[in-house]
UniProtKB/TrEMBL annotation, chains A, B:
This is PLP-dependent aminotransferase family protein. InterPro entries: Aminotransferase_I/II_large (IPR004839), HTH_trans_reg/aminotransferase (IPR051446), PyrdxlP-dep_Trfase (IPR015424), PyrdxlP-dep_Trfase_major (IPR015421), PyrdxlP-dep_Trfase_small (IPR015422), Tscrpt_reg_HTH_GntR (IPR000524), WH-like_DNA-bd_sf (IPR036388), WH_DNA-bd_sf (IPR036390). Residues 3-71 form the HTH gntR-type domain. PANTHER family: HTH-TYPE TRANSCRIPTIONAL REGULATORY PROTEIN GABR, TRANSCRIPTIONAL REGULATORY PROTEIN. Keywords: Aminotransferase, DNA-binding, Pyridoxal phosphate, Transcription, Transcription regulation, Transferase. SMART domains: HTH_GNTR (SM00345). PROSITE patterns: HTH_GNTR. Its cofactor is pyridoxal 5'-phosphate. It comes from the Bacteria. In the C-terminal section; belongs to the class-I pyridoxal-phosphate-dependent aminotransferase family. It holds the Pfam family GntR. SUPFAM superfamilies: PLP-dependent transferases, Winged helix' DNA-binding domain. Coiled coil: none annotated.
C-alpha cells in the first residue's frame, strides 16, 4: 500500500506540472506540508519527490527545497508523450503472460475437458435459428430470452428469486465486478474484501483508489465478530465475497454463517457482492445456497459466471440485483460497451438449456476430482499443508516458512512451471508462505510431472537455507 | 455543468453521512465555508443542501444551519439500501429504449442491409476451422491473427503504420473510448471535445468528472486558432475527435487541417483520440487519411469500429497506439473484461478478409446514399437547413428558433417517431435548435412517411407559436 501511495503522490505532482499549475522554476510544496495536506508519512512524500528527481522532472536546491526543472518539464523534449496512467498493472494477467510447460497458475479448465464438438454443432443450429443475430445489437441489459431462462434456473436450482428485470448479462465475471465497482465505489471509499481473495478483484478496487479492509477467511469460514466490527466502524460500501469453493483457497463458508452475514449487511447497509463462479464444481455434496438466496432487502449483488466450465470463449456472466441499483448498473454498462454481444448470449443459452449440459457437468466434476486427487497424492509431503477442498479448481498450499517466495517463483518459472504466489491474493500483500496451484488446466500426467518438479525445486531451496 | 456540480456536492455529503463521518445531529459545514473549500458558487452548495433537505437527509434550523436528521439518516428505515451511484445516466441509451415506429434516433444500419446469410455460412466455416474456439480465452490484447491482418490493412488502405503489437481489439468502439478514458482521465482532468459530438462520449468523460472544453466543429472543419489557444491555456489530457463523417453532423475535417492538428497535439503534448467509425461509408470521394496516419511521436490514439457496418452483433473495434500507452491499455483491459471473446474476433476476421466484403460495402454505400437522398428530398423545406454530408449515417438539421426542443421531442415520441435532440450532442447542452436524423435504420418508404410526419408536427408547433 505504501508503494502505491508514493506513486500516487508522484502522479499528482506530475499532473499538476502537466496541467501547468506548477510551472518550470516553481517550488514544490515542502515535504512536511504536503505530508500534512495528504495525511501521509513524510517519508512517503520524500520518496515520491526522489522519484520525480530521478525522472528529471524536478531538481533539488540545497536547504531550500524541490523545484520544477526549467529545461526538463515532462511536457517537452520527449520522444513519446508522457503517459501518466491512472491504471496500474494487473498482477494475475502478468503471470499468465509467461509461458510455462506446467501451468499451475491457470484456474481455467483444460479445453480437452470441454465438449467442443457438441458446442460447435449446437452453435450452427443457433445460427440457423436466428438469421439476423449478426446484425442485431443486444439490449444493454441482455437478451430477454436468456434472462427469462436464468430467472427460472435460479429459482429451481438455488431457491433464489430474481425476475428477468433483476438480471443483467455481462461479458464474464471480471466485467461484472468491474461494473459494480464503478457504480458503487469511488476513490477514498472503503471496501471490505476477503483475505486471501481473487487477485484481479483486489486490482479492480485498488485501481479505483478504494481503502481495502480485510475479512479473514479460513477453512471454517468467516469470523463474523470481526466482520461486524469492521462494518460497524468503517461502514464499507460493499463486501466482496466469494463464499463457495473460494478462489484461491477452495474454502466454503458454512450454511449457518450465510444468513447471519446477510443480516449484518442489512444492519449496516453494506452491499454484499457475491462472486459465485464455481458452484457447479462440487466433488461430494452440493454447496450451501448462495448468500443471495437469503436476501430480502436488496443488499446482495450476485455475480454468476457460467461460461467458465462450458464455453469460456463466450464470456457470459449474470448479475442479479434489485432496483434501484439495476438502473445504475444499466447506465454504467451502456457506457462501458453498450451491451454484451447477442450472438454469445444466444449460443450460451442454447447450450445451457440442452440436456447435454448436465451430462457434461457431471463428467467434468469427475475429471476435475481425479485431477485434484492426483495433485494431492503427488504433493504429499510433511512440509506442505493444505485443506482438501470439496470443490473448485485450486489447492491453497502452505510452504515452509524458510522459503523465499520471490525466489521460489523465479526458480519455478526458470523450470517452466508457473503458480500464483499467495502474496498477490492477499490485499495486504503479506501471505508469503502460500501458493495457489490449479489442477484444472493440466492433465494427470502433466500434474504428476509438474508437482514432482515443484517439490524438487522446494527441496533445493530448502537445502540452500540449511 | 452546474447541475452536475450540485448533484456532486449532494453526493459528497450523502457519502459522508453514509460513512458515518457525519452523524445524526451533526451540523453540516456552512454554505459559505463549503463553497470556499470546493471552489464553487454559494448558490450551488445551497441547491445541494436544499436537495438533501427535500430527500429528508438533513434538516434546517433557522439562523443556525443545516443538520443531519436524527431520525431519517439514509442508512436507516428504508426498504432498499441507498444507492448513491457514481454513474449518471446515459442520455442516448435512454432515448433508444423508447420504442418508435419511425426510429430516426438510431445511427445503426438496418439489418436488412447486412449480408446475414453470407455471415452465417461464413461463421459455420469458422467453427470448423477452429474447433476449440469456444473453450479458449483470447489474449487480452486480442487475437494475433486478427491483429496481423489489421496491421497490413491499415498500411494498405490508409497509409497508417501500426505493428500488430500496437493494435488492441476491443468489444466495440464504446468500450474502446471508455478504456482510453479510464487510463488517461481522472476527476478534475481537462478533456477537449468537439461541439457537437457523440453524446455517449460526453457521458463517459462527464461520469469520470472531467472538465470539458469544447472545440467548435463546422462544415469547414475546426477553428485551429481556437484549439491551439485551448491546448496552450488548459493543457487538456486528450482531445476526443471524430473528424470523418462526424457523428452527429456528418462533417469531415479537411485534409490540410489534419496534419496541423497532429502538430498541435505534439506541441502541447495532448493525446488525440480519433474515433473513426464511418470511414467506409462515403458517397463520393474517399475521405482524407486519418489524423493518426500523420502521427510520428505517438500522440494519436486511433479507434476504428469495424463491426458496425458488417456485423454489429459481433462488437469488434481496433485501438491503435504506441508504447508505453499500449501497456497501460492492456492493464486496464484485463481488469475490464480480460479480453474480447475469441469467437467474435475469428468470425469477424474471416468475414472481413473475404472477397465478399468489398462487394457488400459497395452495395451498402449505394443503399445508404439513396436513403440519404430520400430523406433530404422529403425534408426539403425553407425552414429547415442542413449541410448535405458526403458520408456517414446522419443529417444534422437546424429547426426554426421558435421551436421548443423538449416539446418537439415529446410530440414526436407521442407520434411514435424518435430523433436525437441536439442538446444531448452538445457538451454545453445549449444547441437547442438542432436535431440528428439518422437515415440508416429505416427503409425509403418509412423515411418518406416518417419525415412527412415530422414536418407535420413541426408545422403544428409553429402554428401554436404564431
Amino acid at each position: 500500500m505504501k508503494d502505491h501511495l508514493f506513486r500516487q503522490i508522484g502522479q499528482t505532482i506530475t499532473n499538476r506540472i502537466e496541467r501547468g499549475e506548477l510551472k518550470p522554476g516553481d517550488k514544490l510544496p515542502s515535504v512536511r506540508s504536503l505530508a500534512l495536506e495528504l495525511g501521509v508519512h513524510r517519508l512517503t512524500v520524500f520518496k515520491a519527490y526522489q522519484q520525480l528527481k530521478h525522472r528529471g522532472s524536478v531538481t533539488v536546491v540545497d536547504k531550500s527545497g524541490y523545484y520544477v526543472k526549467e529545461d526538463a518539464s515532462p511536457l517537452v523534449g520527449l520522444d513519446y508523450p508522457v503517459v501518466s496512467s491512472y491504471v496500474h498493472k494487473s498482477h494475475l494477467s502478468e503471470i499468465h503472460r509467461i509461458h510455462a510447460d506446467y501451468q499451475f497458475s491457470q484456474a481455467v479448465i483444460d479445453p480437452d475437458l470441454l465438449p467442443n464438438q457438441y458446442t460447435s454443432s449446437s452453435a450452427k443450429h443457433v445460427l440457423d435459428l436466428y438469421p439476423k443475430v449478426f446484425s442485431t445489437y443486444a439490449a444493454v441489459q441482455g437478451d430477454s430470452e436468456l434472462r427469462d431462462y436464468l430467472s427460472h434456473y435460479f429459482y429451481q436450482n438455488q431457491k433464489q428469486l430474481a425476475s428477468p428485470e433483476e438480471i443483467l448479462i455481462a461479458s464474464g465475471s471480471q466485467q461484472a465486478i468491474d461494473l459494480i465497482a464503478r457504480v458503487l465505489v469511488r476513490r477514498g471509499d472503503t471496501v471490505l474484501i476477503e483475505r486471501p481473495t481473487y487477485s484481479a478483484a483486489i486490482d479492480v478496487f485498488h485501481n479505483i483508489g478504494a481503502r481495502l479492509l480485510t475479512a479473514d477467511l479460513t477453512a471454517e469460514g468467516y469470523n463474523l465478530v470481526q466482520i461486524e466490527k469492521l462494518m460497524k466502524e468503517y461502514r464499507p460500501r460493499l463486501f466482496y465475497s466469494n463464499p463457495t469453493f473460494q478462489n484461491p483457497t477452495g474454502y466454503t463458508v458454512p450454511l449457518e454463517q450465510r444468513k447471519q452475514l446477510v443480516d449484518l449487511a442489512e444492519k449496516y447497509q453494506v452491499f454484499l457482492l457475491e462472486d459465485d463462479a464455481f458452484r457447479d464444481i462440487y466433488f461430494a455434496d452440493k454447496p450451501p445456497l448462495p448468500l443471495s438466496s437469503y436476501d430480502v432487502h436488496g443488499h446482495c449483488i450476485y455475480v454468476r459466471s457460467f461460461s467458465k466450465y462450458i464455453a469460456p470463449g463466450l464470456r457470459i456472466a449474470a448479475v442479479v440485483c434489485r432496483e434501484p441499483l439495476m438502473q445504475q448498473l444499466l447506465a454504467a454498462k451502456s457506457l462501458m460497451d453498450n451491451g454484451t454481444p447477442l450472438l454469445n448470449q444466444k449460443l450460451f443459452l442454447h447450450y445451457f438449456r440442452s440436456d447435454r449440459l448436465q451430462q457434461h457437468i457431471e463428467k467434468l466434476r469427475t475429471a476435475l476430482e481425479i485431477r485434484k486427487e492426483v495433485m494431492e497424492t503427488s504433493l504429499a509431503d510433511q512440509q506442505l499443508t493444505w485443506e482438501s477442498p470439496s470443490g473448485g479448481l485450486n489447492l491453497w498450499v502452505r510452504v515452509p516458512d524458510a522459503i523465499n517466495m520471490d525466489r521460489l517463483l523465479a526458480e519455478c518459472l526458470t523450470h517452466s512451471l508457473s503458480f500464483v504466489p499467495g502474496t498477490i491474493c492477499d490485499p495486504l500483500k503479506k501471505q508469503e508462505h502460500w501458493v495457489r496451484l490449479s489442477y484444472s488446466f493440466m492433465n494427470e500426467q502433466k500434474i504428476k510431472e509438474g508437482i514432482t518438479r515443484f517439490k524438487d525445486i522446494l527441496k533445493k531451496l530448502n537445502k540452500e537455507i540449511i
